[in-house]
Amino acid sequence: MYQEHFKLKRQPFSEHTSVDGLWIDQRMKEALSRLTFLVDHAALGLVTGPSGVGKSALLKCFLDKLPQRCEAVYCHLTHLPSSSLLKVLVTQMGEVPRRGKDRLFDQIYQAAKRTDGTLLLVVDEAHLLDSDALTDLRLLVSSAIDVAPPLKILLVGQQALRAVLKRSQHADLLNRVNVQYHLHPFTKDQTARYIDIQMKQAGGPEDVFDVSVKELIHDFTGGIARQINNLATACLLQATACNVVRVDEALFQQTTSEFNM
Global pTM? Predict the structure, then answer.
């Protein structure tokens, strides 16, 4: 509906944007440089950030640009018990999981050996991992010294993951983290730039949102990308309903009066 009203080619604030449509801001560049180092020289990486801040977009960019020498296995079903998590990882490698944790470990090791380069296990939503799963992942990394090519693990999760890793029982795992990055929300300037870029890439004008409104959107959302997407979309819908092509402060207030973040 609002796409026709604003003559847009696509939704500007969709969470499922293609890699080509993602904005690589300074935060992304810094994080990607660290993840590149993980692939080349490290064994265990950690990326954290609030929900909706852009961790999935970062992973999408990172995995899209992986060198051919690195094979990635992605898993986000981290609420499962440890043995089930290992089975999911083995299944993601295209194999039938065997019975017994020792055999699952061996399957992962053998997969690393067969990889023409590096095998990278990407564990998303890692803040949901239980204690046993974290221990098993540590054992995978520590045992990987005998595996050629090396096995690497990237843990991605919300801020609570850092608190979990600081507990005494996970000190060995935390000490093995070679590369880490905390993804912060957008600054006010980044929020404004993000809104402009998303509108432009969707085929619309960059001046739909007043400057003051972009600042209000940042204040209302705290610079969280997912919330910016939701609120900006709500503003476009409200503008369409009011048959206007500018989002000013009055329209913003109309939108937020019924918009619960």
Answer: 0.91
